[in-house]
Amino acid sequence: MERKLLFPHLFTPITVNGVEIKNRVVFLPHATAYVDQEYSPTEREVYYYEERAKGGAGLIVLPSRVVHPSGVYPGLGIGYHQDDIPKFKKIVDAVHSHGSKIFVQLTHMGNQTKSVETFRPTWAPSAIPDMTVGEIPKEMTIEEIEELIDSFASSAAMLFEAGFDGVEIKVAHDGILGQFISLLKNQRTDRYGGSIENRGRIVVEILSAIRNKIGQVPLGVRLGINRYLPGDYGVDEAIAYAKLFSILADYISTDTGTWESIDMLVPSMNIPQGFLLEDVAKIKKATDKIVIGNGRIIWPATAENALEKGYLDMVGMARALIADPYWANKAEAGKPEEIRGCIGCNQKCMGRLLQNLPISCVQNPTSGHEKKYGEDILYKKTTTPKKIVVIGGGPAGMKAAEIYARRGNKVVLLEKDNDLGGRVRWESRLPGRRGVSGVSRYLIHMLETLDNVDLRLNSEADADTVVKENPDIVIIATGSTLISTNPAFYNTLDALDGKVEGNNILVLDNDASTEGAAITELLVKSGKIVHWVTPAFFNGQNITAPILLDNFKRLAGGENLMLHPMKVLTDFKNGEATLLNLYLGTTEKLSNIDAVVATGIKTPNNELYNKLKGLVPQLYIIGDAAAPRDVASALEDAVGLSKLIKEA
């Protein structure tokens, strides 16, 4: 008897211009910074995309291959070197080996690169810079536009030699084509500016040139449908663009935001899941072509519902499949509760990308490291099961327990409190950080369903307790304790518990992280006057841009918030705080301060580790117990431990 699918629409095949795709799950194109210094494909990309193909994605779109030397950008690949074809073919063959299809996306960075990268003035529709880059570009001549059109077509033809199943051009959050259709970035008065038809002309001409080069193969457009900038286009104009482009394109893949509105390009955990779907439905209604829709889709139920309602034809996800490469397989098996859901923190995906570093994921530290830590490696069954005692049920301890239980070991997890979660419990109470609880949701579910995990809550361990368990391996994950630099100061937990007295509060944000920003927001929203002090160059410096913008928007307009960057507290007496600017050497005095809240300071709980040295066969310490950092580091430590512990 055939098994009934829980999400039947999601796992119905679809054909795009003669190419059948096994399901409606699309791994959207996104920059990874995995290419080499010559912008060429790498082995790392092979493992990365193969993992998502193994995980069941029907279609994978290789991101942002630049078509012309004037548009290169650090971390993005190029699509015009013939010598790279064998390297591309390795990616294509790896994806095909698991029954998935793979398209390639073409772009040119326009005013969003710099001449230091291109060794020539950057090209753009008009001499208007991107505010996040700042360099004034050269307005393209008609001859340069024609050269660019030819480059798109030539790159498409060359890349098809590697075996790609389709091609997509990027008219989206970055890249020169998005700049041409922008109402702000394109101020031309010739046939490539002015009306919707003129602004979109270059896109139509590129589509036509590609079609003439490669014939009837899948050809699509990644289209930004709302730039979320005052004076730029929104959904109404996007509908007109979609109608124009779909005359030649086989599909439209929706996108949103820009670098200048990055909080809507990669929406945070505070933006509703599926927020874009109603606008996607408007694009679908306006065109008779296939629509790949996106918009912070995390769970299969959201995807299935959108398909059932006819909002879209295929479901596009990037971060969701970064967080769990096996998203599709789990959904198809009817086990959505086992999906490791994206929490929308943007810390190691966009956060690292904005530093031109290879991306990864807080929820899934193995992302981008599949050669060493892919699913088949991390959870490979052991042939020599051990008894492993894990002390501490925070993110590090839970992750370690999950890994070693899934490998087939007997795991005892001792947690002193009545609930699992550790630092996740308090961090998810912070304003704007509720989504962090997703880390615990997944791990708690897995630990409760694994029958070889002995989970003991309300069990504070000491050295005798641990030794009596007769363990082969002990993992200390006892976390850290929030402290303040002065006994008279409050800490983060005090603020969360409503213990901070007074109306005029100084927040001493020592690490310029989400902790300090959230405590500031908590106090401001409670009506207190807040002085936000940090030694960093600007408040929130160590928060990735999409999250920081989200935070600032929530704080905007308040007259009870004062910012004091680049400063440290040197003295606090009788309600007077003395601040020193570390770089200018100047001092400032704040009067009538009722209380100081210190954030970003923790001390490791490593006493048990020190007591157990020499008493058990193998002893390890991970997470904040080893060195207080963040949730991402705690999970990384647990994964990295798999290379230190042998035969378990």
Describe this structure in words.
- The chain is α/β, with parallel strands linked by helices and 648 residues long.
- Helix content is 32%, strand content 18%.
- It has an eight-stranded parallel beta barrel with strand order 3-4-5-8-9-10-11-12, surrounded by seven helices. A five-stranded parallel sheet has the order 15-14-13-16-26. A four-stranded parallel sheet has the order 20-19-18-24.
- Helix 11 links the parallel strand 11 and strand 12.
- Helix 17 runs parallel beside helix 19 and helix 17 runs parallel beside helix 25.
- The longest helix has 19 residues.
- The protein is globular and about 75 Å long.
Biggest sheet layout? 8 strands, parallel, barrel
How much of the sequence is in beta strands? Answer: 15-25%
Report strand order across the widest sheet.
3-4-5-8-9-10-11-12
Report low-confidence residues grouped into runs of 5 or more. none
Q: What distance separates the N and C termini?
A: 39 Å
Tell the overall outline: globular
What's the count of strands?
A: 26
Rg calc:
26 Å
- How many separate helices? 25
Identify the notable features of this structure and list them briefly:
single chain, 648 residues, alpha/beta, eight-stranded parallel β-barrel, five-stranded parallel beta sheet, 25 helices, globular
Can you describe this structure in just a few lines?
Helix content is 32%, strand content 18%.
